[in-house]
């Protein structure tokens, strides 16, 4: 089966996860995290920007559709 790289996938190549997590540890940015880690929040914000959503409810609904 052919793989298709999405726009989100291309953007995530710019931010290597290991470097992002290195900065998270360095600056202790996940110290008070309850639900979303910094990486998950970055992915969500990039997705919202690409898709043009400006409402949290619409972002949540569209992400649930793509959860599978």
Features:
single chain, about 70 residues, mainly alpha, about 65% helix, about 0% strand
Q: Please, could you describe this protein's structure?
A:
The structure is a single chain. It is built from 4 helices and no strands. It is mainly alpha-helical and 68 residues long. α1 crosses α3. The two termini are 18 Å apart. The model has no long low-confidence stretch (mean pLDDT 86).
Proportion of β residues?
under 5%
| Principal-axes shape call | globular
Please, how many helices?
A: 4
**What is the total tally of β strands?**
0
Order of helices and strands: HHHH
The secondary structure category is mainly alpha
First-to-last CA distance: 18 Å
What's the SSE blueprint?
Layout: H1 7-14, H2 17-27, H3 38-51, H4 56-65
Helix pairs in contact: 1-3
Offer a quick outline of the entry.
This protein is mostly helical and 68 residues long. 63% of the residues lie in helices and 0% in strands.
């Amino acid at each position: 089966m052919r793989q298709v790289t999405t726009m989100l996938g291309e953007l995530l190549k710019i931010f290597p996860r290991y470097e992002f997590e290195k900065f998270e540890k360095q600056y202790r940015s996940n110290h008070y995290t309850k639900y979303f880690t910094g990486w998950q929040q970055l992915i969500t914000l990039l997705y919202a920007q690409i898709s043009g959503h400006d409402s949290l409810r619409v972002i949540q609904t569209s992400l649930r559709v793509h959860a599978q």
